[in-house]
Design goal:
Elements: H1 2-43, E1 47-54, E2 58-65, H2 68-77, H3 84-89, E3 94-101, E4 107-117, H4 120-129, H5 131-142, E5 148-153, E6 158-163, E7 166-171, E8 175-190, E9 193-208, E10 212-225, E11 233-246, E12 251-266, E13 269-285, E14 288-305, H6 306-313, H7 320-331, E15 336-349, E16 352-365, H8 371-376, E17 385-394, H9 395-402, H10 405-413, E18 417-419, E19 422-430, E20 433-436, E21 439-440
Antiparallel strand pairs: 1-2, 2-3, 3-4, 4-5, 5-6, 6-8, 7-8, 8-9, 9-10, 10-11, 11-12, 12-13, 13-14, 14-15, 15-16, 16-17, 17-19, 18-19, 19-20, 20-21
Helix pairs in contact: 6-7
Length: about 450
């Protein structure tokens, strides 16, 4: 038994010795090869790789955004939702990357990612307007103030990371302070694709003297890829509190915001739904204070031609012919847009509490929509649209709205019907004709 036990321990020691010598070297070389393959792919798709330094267990290089057209095509093929304007704005941006192999017990590959050069458009604008700010930004880049750390596990099935905390104050014409605390993320990888992502952020704030204060706290989010396309997904996020403080005694407070979204693609047509819940919104301006409780907003879209929509993102904004052709394809599939529920349970004005309102609406675009006909006669679009909207307002809220001079005349011309103690509007729009509670306008 003792001999057998010693043999097992010996095998473990040998295996461990192999891992930390030849085994770890083999894994490092495999990771280096994989990184090299990825960099070659990036070079072939509009990115530049510069200042590369390779050592035994680490390396450094600079990634630059050189050819926007190629980059857009590549990122779109990888499922990223980017527009031409987004990538053009990044032209000339340079990103430094420090890579380490087998940095700790978790990581096969660790990356520190940080900007080392500004986009051309931003650099030109800052040079012309504020050279002092430019020097400050250059120092921040040299200090790696803006840094993302990322670790991939040894099976390459997951990752985790964080964004370096930021607490920076600019004091040129006015004092502006940026703070970001405890931004962490993690996720899972399947078949070389990111399957899930989870993020948390303790605090993000911007303070600009007395002009503006914005604080966002207790942010969490999640994302899951649920099908073969990047649009087959489920996602959600929550924010504990958002605060805005502006001039003229204006402020806004939002608490307990929760958003969930589900989307799927079938036969190249996207179906998507978004559900939003907010526990409280408070608005203060001068001597007035408004409060809304339990706000719900749901939004659905169906039959969106995602192939044409993606193609539209890469079209030159000056190519009117291509834009019209793709827009025609998108609209010819019979898009429907619905707001099943937009409601507020309670509304308070300067302490007076009232029951709220509920709204639902549906809009559809007929497959016969002809963009060329609309360009000749803009009113032709009315024949392709149909919508139905239902509005229910509490008597207290309706009476308050009726006190506003701008609303008074409209309400006199379009009186509501009353059902179950609520003021009701049923509005239909079909082929250019509007009816309100059954009466034509």
């Amino acid at each position: 038994m003792k001999k057998s036990g010693f043999g097992i321990i010996g095998l473990i020691l040998v295996a461990a010795l192999y891992y930390f010598t030849a085994g770890s070297a083999q894994i490092t070389e495999e990771m280096k090869k994989q990184v090299n393959d990825e960099l070659t792919t990036l070079q072939q798709n509009g990115f530049g790789i510069n200042d590369r330094e390779i050592k035994e267990t680490e390396e450094h290089f600079v990634l630059s955004f050189d050819e926007p057209a190629k980059i857009i095509s590549y990122l779109s093929s990888q499922g990223a939702e980017v527009t031409q304007e987004d990538i053009l704005a990044f032209k000339g941006l340079k990103i430094g990357v420090d890579a380490k192999y087998l940095n700790d017990s978790y990581s096969a590959l660790s990356l520190d990612i940080y900007p080392v050069g500004l986009p051309e458009s931003m650099l030109q604008e800052i040079e012309e307007e504020d050279k002092t700010a430019l020097e400050r930004i250059k120092k921040m880049m040299a200090d790696k103030t803006l840094l993302v750390h990322l670790d991939f596990n040894k099976l390459l099935t997951g990752f985790k990371g964080h964004i370096k905390d930021i607490n920076e104050t600019f004091e040129e014409e006015e004092k502006i302070t940026f703070i970001s605390q405890d931004f962490k993320f993690e996720g899972d990888i399947e078949d070389e694709k990111v399957k899930t992502v989870r993020q948390t952020l303790k605090l993000f704030s911007v303070e600009a003297d007395k002009e503006l204060t914005m604080k966002l706290s207790d942010f969490t989010s999640n994302y899951t890829l649920s099908g073969p396309s990047p649009y087959d997904s489920k996602s959600g996020y929550s924010i504990g509190q958002i605060e805005l403080q502006g001039e003229s005694e204006f402020s806004m407070l939002m608490k307990d915001l929760n958003v969930n979204a589900v989307s799927s693609v079938k036969n190249d047509l996207l179906k998507s739904s978004i559900s939003t819940e907010t526990g409280l919104i408070e608005l203060t301006e001068a001597q007035k204070k408004y409060k809304m409780n339990d706000i719900l907003f749901d939004f659905n879209i169906d039959n969106l031609d995602i192939v044409s929509f993606e193609a539209l993102q890469g079209v030159d904004v000056n190519d009117e012919k291509a834009i019209n052709a793709l827009t025609q394809k998108i609209l010819s599939k019979g898009i429907t847009i619905n707001i099943p529920n937009f409601s507020v349970k309670k509304i308070a004005e300067n302490g007076k509490i009232m029951d709220g309102f509920m709204l639902s609406s549906a809009l559809s675009i007929d497959k016969s929509f002809d963009i060329n006909a609309v360009s000749q006669d803009p009113l032709a679009v009315l024949n392709a649209l149909s919508s139905k909207t239902n509005i229910s307002v509490s008597n207290e809220l309706f009476a308050r709205i009726a006190q506003e001079p701008r609303a008074m005349m409209v309400l006199m011309l379009l009186p509501p019907v009353e059902k179950e103690g609520k003021k009701i509007y049923e509005i239909e729009f079909i082929k250019g004709k509007i009816t309100v509670n059954g009466a034509s306008l």
